Amino acid sequence: MCNDVPLNFSWIVNLKKDMFSGRILIFFKNLEQTGVVYDFVTTNIKQSPSDVTKTVHMYHSQTNPDRKKAIVDSLSRPLAVGEMTVVLCTSSFSLGLNLRDIEYVVHYGLPHSLTDYVQETGRAAREPTTHGHAIILAYDKMSVGTKVERAMQEVAKTKMCRRDCIMSYFRLTPSPNVKCCDICNPDLAELCAIIPYIRVNREQTGQDTISTVTPSSYSTPSLSSISDMSD
Fold it and tell me: What pLDDT does residue 140 have?
């Protein structure tokens, strides 16, 4: 993974340089991935452990309880002017938390199950005035197969609206077509990097979205590479 980190996560460093304001959760499958990305980002934005105000946080099963509480408390308050907060986390972050002003939930690769995915993306847009954007960041040699339940694979492979696919799985009535994902919204389908995605969502869509993206340096589009993987 180490060789892929600059390609996959330089966008966080660039957002900091661009003085981006907002809150982003990034879910990883294991502690090792979380730690590697944390080291890369904090080094490149020159964040020190002694900094009183931090941009990037790490939250996982081994995080100190006091530190966990401090992160959750900070995200329970309204977004401050000019605040940029990125939490690199594992699935332990998603249960029983009522967070505010989370606009983007990113998954590094496919979650294990669709239930996990819905639970974790549910951290976004808890307020009626906040639009939530769920992003699956595909990457080279991303594993699917038996490590990811079939329902989650189907959401990645579907040719229909991703939100409708998710709602149908849970036997809920599909929502009206509001061009909410990269399948039904051509503007999102053409995006191939996270930073333009964030800018387009804020300036053009004005609604909740679900998308799968791949860093632009990859030779194959993320959706086709997922679809071509064997079950």
Answer: 65
Backbone angles phi, psi at 56, to 5 degrees: -110, 135
Number of domains in the chain: 1
Q: pLDDT tens digits, residue range 114-139?
A: 999 988 888 887 777 777 788 888 77
Compute the average pLDDT of residues 90-117. Answer: 85
Worst-scoring range by mean pLDDT, 65-69, 127-131, 173-177, 202-206? 202-206
Structure token pair of residue 77:
């308050």
Stated pTM of the model: 0.83
Q: What is the mean pLDDT of residues 163-170?
A: 88
* Contact yes or no for 127/100 (Cβ under 8 A): yes
DSSP structural state of residue 76: T
27: closest CA among 109, 146, 118?
A: 109
C-alpha span between 64 and 147 (Å, rounded)? 29
Beta bridge partner(s), residue 104: 24, 133
Q: What does the alpha-carbon distance between residue 129 and residue 150 come to, in Å, rounded to a whole number?
A: 34
Range of 30's domain? 2-217
228 part of a folded domain: no
Helical (H) or strand (E) element with 95:
none
In a domain, 11, yes or no: yes
Of residues 40, 35, 100, the one with CA closest to residue 61: 35
| Residue 68 CB contacts under 8 Å (≥ 6 apart), including other chains | 59
| Residue 173's CATH number | 3.40.50.300
The answer to the question of residue 222 being in a domain is no
Instruction: Quote the tokens at residue 42.
Output: 């904090």
Q: DSSP state, 181?
A: B
